[in-house]
Structures are given as C-alpha cells and as structure tokens.
UniProtKB/TrEMBL annotation:
SUPFAM superfamilies: Bet v1-like (SSF55961), Homeodomain-like (SSF46689). Residues 21-80 bind DNA. GO terms for cellular component: nucleus. It comes from Setaria viridis. The keyword Transferase does not apply. This is Homeobox domain-containing protein. GO terms for molecular function: DNA binding; lipid binding. It is found in: Nucleus. Its main location: nucleus. Coiled coil: none annotated. The lineage of its organism: Eukaryota, Viridiplantae, Streptophyta, Embryophyta, Tracheophyta.
Amino acid sequence: MNIDSANVDDDNDDVYIPEAPSKRPKRHAAEQIQELKAAYKQCDHPDEKARRALGAKIGLEASQVRFWFQNQRAQMQAKAQVQDTKAVQQEHAALMAENASLRHAMLTMSCVACSGGTAPAEPSPEKRRLLAENARLRDEHMRATALLHKILLEAEAPPPSGRPVPAASTHSMLSAAVEGRGALLRHAEASMDQFLMLATKGEPLWVLTPDGEVLNCQVYQKRTFPVLLGTCPDGFVREATREAGVVRGAAAHLVGILTDANRWSETFPGVVAGATAGNVVNVGVFAPHNGLIQLMNANLWVQSPRLRNRSVNFLRYSKLTAEGHWAVMDVSVDAILGLEGSRKVDLNVDSDVMQAWHKGCRLLPSGCLVEDMGNGYCKVTWVVHAEYDETTVPTMFKPLFRSGKAHGAQRWLASLQRQCEYLSALHSSHVPRSSHNTGTISPMGRRGIMELAQRMMASFYSAVSGPVTQPSSSIDEWHGSNGTGAERIAAAVRMVTWKKAGSMDGEPAGLVLSSSTTVWLPNTPPQLVFEYLCNGQCRGEWDTFANGAAVEELGSVATGHLDGNAVSVLCPNVTDGINSKMLILQEARTDASCSIVVYAPVEEERMRAVMNGGDHASVDFLLPSGFAVLPDGHGKARRHAPCTSEAPVGDGNTAGALLTVACQALLPGSPSGEHTARAFDDVGGLLCRAIKKIKAAVKAKIVVASLM
C-alpha cells in the first residue's frame, strides 16, 4: 500500500510553517529542487521509506523532504483553485455577453414584412387573470403576515400584574399555539445572546490553560442568571468546549447544510446517526435561512458497541449577524415543551419527529459562528455546551467524554473540515494522486469508487454503533481469549445475527454475523495504531483475507490533505477458489478527533467495472469490517472534568487509544444453533488474534477489555 500514513505530524494545514529561526533559513540547492520536482511528478504522497531514500540521495533529512512535498501540494492546489476560478469567471463573462446580445436582439427586433419595429405582444386574457390573482394572493399574504406578527408580539408581552388568568375558551388551542411559539421565540433569542457571548468572548469567561481553554463556570453563571434550563439534574456533569479553524466552502453554503436535517446528518456521518426536522417556529426573512428557527431531533453516536446513542431535541436558530457572518445556534427545548417541568406547551409536535424525549442529555446554547473569508474558505468557531448523565457512560469511556473529544467542539469541527475536503475531492477535477497506480481508475471511476466507499462507511457506522433494526435479529455476548499468561488477550464481543434476503441477481439468502468489541490500549497513541493498520506491508499479520502476505494497491484517491485519508482498491495475495476473484475496497479517515479504517471484499469483475466508470449500484451488498481508533481521554486533557469517577487511570502524560474492532461475515447455508455457536467462537477468536497482533506491533504493554 503506497499511501503514506506513517507520519502525520501536520495536524491541520498542508503548508508547513516553521517557528521563526534565529537566522535566515538556507534554501535548497537547484539540483535538490530538480530532484524533488522529478520525484513529485512520479508520486506526490511518498511514504516514509521513499522520503528517506530521496533525502539520502540529495542530502536532505526525511522531514525536510516531507515539508517540501506538503508545500508543493499546497501550491498545486492553490494553482488549481485559481484556474477553476478563472474558468468560472470566463464562463460567467461569456454568459453575460450572450445575455446582453439576446437583450439587444429583442429590443431591435424588426418585422420581416415591413422592416418596422415589432410592438410588444399583448398579454393573453389567461395571463392577465393569473397576474391579477398573483397580486391578490400577495396582498393577502402580506396582511396575514402582519396580523400574525402582531399576535406574536402581544403573546410575548407579560400580562398586567394582578390580572387573573382567563379561563379556557373556544380559542384555547389557538391561544396555546400562539403562546407556545412566543415562548420558543423568547427562548431562542435569549439562547442566541448566550451563544454569541460564548463564541466571541475571551477571558475571564474562557480561561487559557496549558491544556486548552476552560470555561469559567462562575463567570458564566453570573452573566447568564437566571439560567435557561434550570438547575443541572443530579448525576449530570457539564462539558464546555470551543474550537476554531478554517473550513473549505462559502458561509452561505455551510449554513444551508446546517439548516437542512438530511444534509446535516450526511455531512457528519461519524457523529450524527440520524436527524429529523419538526415544526418551523419562525421563517427566515430578507435572506435565505436568516431568522429561521425550527425544532429538530438528532441521535448522536460514538464508534463503539459499548456506548449508547445520545438523543437531543433542540431549537436550531440561524441568524445573519453581519455581512458574510452567520451564527447557527442549538439549544434544548425539553423544559419549554413541558417535559422537565410544569410549563407544558401544545405545539402539535409530531410524535414521529420528537420520538425520543429527554435521554440523559441537555444541550445548553451551542453551535457555530461561520465567517466568510472571501477566498473559498470560512473561519468556523464551534462551541459545545451540554450537560449529560454520566451514569450512562461505561467506566472506560468516562475520560473520553470528560475530555470533550466524544461529542465536543473539536470532533464537530474536525469532522466538518475533513468532510468538506472529501466532497471537494469528490466533485473536483483536480484531485492529487496518492500513488503512481491511480491511473488505473478513470475520472468517472474515481467518483464511483468514492460514492461506493460512502455507502460502505455508512454501513460500518450502523453495524458498530447503530441500534439493531433488522427483522429476525438477535444479540448475544461472547466472552473469550487468545494466548496465555502475559500474552493473553481477552475480549467481550457483541454478536448480532440477522437474516439477509436473496438479491435480484440470484445471490442467495443467508445469515449475517456482525461482531464488534472495544479494547483500551493505555499509553499507546491512537495515531500509531492507525499507521500500523494502513501499512499494506503488514496487513497479512491481522487480515486473514490477505493470506499472511502484503497486499497490492491497484489504485487510490486522496480525500484530504492529511496523509492517510484515502479510498483505495487493494488486491490480496490469494489463490484459493472464490477468494481469488475478490478485491478489497478500503477507506481510511483520520483527523484530530478519531481515525477509521474500513474495508469490504468486492467481486473483482464488479469492482473493475466501477473503476472504469460503471455504476457503483451494481455492487448492491457490502459487508464492511474495520477499526475505529479514538483517544482515551488521558494524557493532555483539553478540558476540566469532575473528579468523581472510578475510571481507570493511565499515565497522565501519554494519551492512549480506544480501539474498536468489527468483523462482518455471511454464514453459509442455514446455520443451526450449534453451527452459530461455532461461528461465534471462530469470529471471536479472529478478533482476539487481530488485537494481539496490533498490541505486539505498536508495543502496547497491556490490553484492557471493555465489558458491558
């Protein structure tokens, strides 16, 4: 595998900006630059071995070679962007010229018979009727909008003191709806003010520490009294995180994604399990999405079978705060809707939309500021401020949640940055090559491969973290181990079986076994685990499908500026029967919050058809397996956390990894209970052996199994 994932120190930008030296840095010699450019033409993402060899050849350190390649990639991307911009400008100018020409032709149009100017055509009676009807409807809409606005303002005004509350009347339902929307509008405006304060203010509200920014709760409570959602429930803890970064895309485009429930969940596939939009409380005015307030429900997940999904019901309020500056704010509404107290409001809320009310999480004013930078990029400041029930979090995962890396701002922003880069690579004609074999994938095939990989990733997320929704499914727990003594690896594996129906092309039905488990590798950096899993030369150590040997990369597409983000097609060294006719589709993703490696076997004939531009829908069934690597929350903690946990404590100076391993397989025939039990033992043992190989490769001292 030629994709370099062995050294990813450049966390954010592809351009290396060194610290200011004490003297002027020495430039590379002309001969060195010529050699570097020649190597870049061959491969613009060389691996560590290639960088060292090239450095030794021209007298440079491997790190210098890596930084030169990073800068060169950034320059090429900038040039490509300039070319795209010029092409769009030229096309725009041509269209404007054509428009002007057509307008001139219409104004100077003459009659063929007499060479005189043509009189404007008289509108038909039907057109005149439609214009009059349109004007009448527009007038009625304006008067109805003004009346509704007046009613809402009257509902917001508090009743005079001493006046008794009137009894219910025949208009009680209308009054309740008006009052409910008035309460939500007041709640949204107050929450937006708090969010803007959290997103824009520095000290003393946010205190800068060596571990990052920490919210000063005393200052926050003084500035926000009285609190919006009441006191924090017993057993709940607070998390407050803030992160800022640069994201590819226009501000209006990003706001459009955030205000659409479906597009929002598609943009954050590793964070949002599903989202639905409820009633629109307020419609945007003057600009699309400006002032839009809507009820939403979302289920959030973290890639591990041991963690419950987090369900939140909230208002999403988007507001244009200045030209090119947007604020998109979320805040829980359970209390406003009467689910946590006595203030119950009838909003005719759709029960299917708000299907899961308070589930152990309250979202205080959170969201993001989006500032258009005018160069195709935006500055995004993300804030997550929430309270959650810590008793629902398993002991091993409590440091992860307390650090803010499970559902915090860092994860949201990193996911947005990576997904925007992914979509840019999907739609752009200028995609950097990640290996010299990329030519085996056609331009149309590249898009098909990436869309097929998106389907594979969605299936993996559901298998690892999603609820079991397949009919005739069952969930079991398998406990086993591999090895003895200090080399013994124990694991508790979730086993899910469900029946797969036969496909249209004659593929038989069968029983699918989906297995997954999470283990803790203390003091083992997550990036080290990710690098090992992406190393094609070592794949045979843990992947039985690779037949104990290295795999050949037939082609790959880089999906981000960080080394390791790529979609690849691999050919295993297999010679036996059916498996010799299979290829491996793999996607690797890494950012500041997590790393994921997912792969699935695909018939070679269908895979090559997609690589040549065929429809990826021909691959109608994927059973992905893979790994999710999360930080364990130890080491350099980014946020303050309560000190009331019995969570295991590792070396406070070294971050560890939470490794989730998942394997899916189609069991042949119609397995009986005894056959299924043997399959559990086989697959459970397979996972234990893979974990053992990873432990040895990354030199982890111990492996701790995660129990229910």
